[in-house]
Prior knowledge:
Elements: E1 12-14, E2 21-23, H1 60-84, H2 98-114, E3 120-123, H3 125-135, H4 148-161, E4 166-174, E5 177-186, E6 189-202, E7 205-215, E8 218-219, H5 222-234, E9 248-254, E10 257-262
Antiparallel strand pairs: 1-2, 3-10, 4-5, 5-6, 6-7, 7-8, 9-10
Amino acid sequence: MNERDCKPDADTTTCPNCGFRQEAGRVECMCCGLILDRYRPKAYPFGPDHKIPAEKRPGLLRRTYRILRWFVLAGTLVTLALILRNSAPPSIKTSPDANLRAETKIVEFQSTSGRGVPATLQLDEAELNAWVQSKLPSAVQEPSPTAPEQRGQDEDTAVGQAQSNVRDIRLHLDGDNITAYVLFDLHGKELSLILEGKLEFHDGCLRMVPTAGKLGSLPLMETTLRGAASRLFDSPENRDKFCLPPGIRDVRIEEGKLILSSR
């Protein structure tokens, strides 16, 4: 049965699907079989012939911003990963009696210069590193099971030992250049800093003029190097670690040795 075969009747209603007029009150359309109570008309808020405009493409500036945003995020993650990845420390010369030799030379140097006689102190790489290592705080060890009173004292000692943020210092001497490797603590995370450059001596303390360096595995720019060196050598926590005995007139590096001269 099609629409032209369906004849309208008096007191009728029109099927909303096929337009067939039929007796009012029917549940099912006689022409198309539509269940009239279940019919839900389609919504055309702007009319059935309204065309939805195509979505406008973002402009060049907005697309550039979206791309740069992802590049900045990726660059930040890469930079953070490089900083957190510590560099390997330089290979330095070591000797079992290096610290004893260094202390003996320093005592003799202080004794001679204390009498007003000019003196010269020479420390090789092994002696210099042994002396620097002896000035660093001891590593914090795990407390052994003890009485509560003793345990409290051990915890206080551990806290005192952990106050210094410098964990390790290694110095490599090459000609008249020096490479300083510093391992320090930053909010519970150990980070490495490598500075290469020339050694200077001001106000009784050593410092460096860096020419290259890395924070973790991230190469540092010149301005960043200067800031890092200033913070390392001039901070109140670390300044005393780089100070030498009084009476020193000059400090220089020659042929892989640290040479100190008294007044």
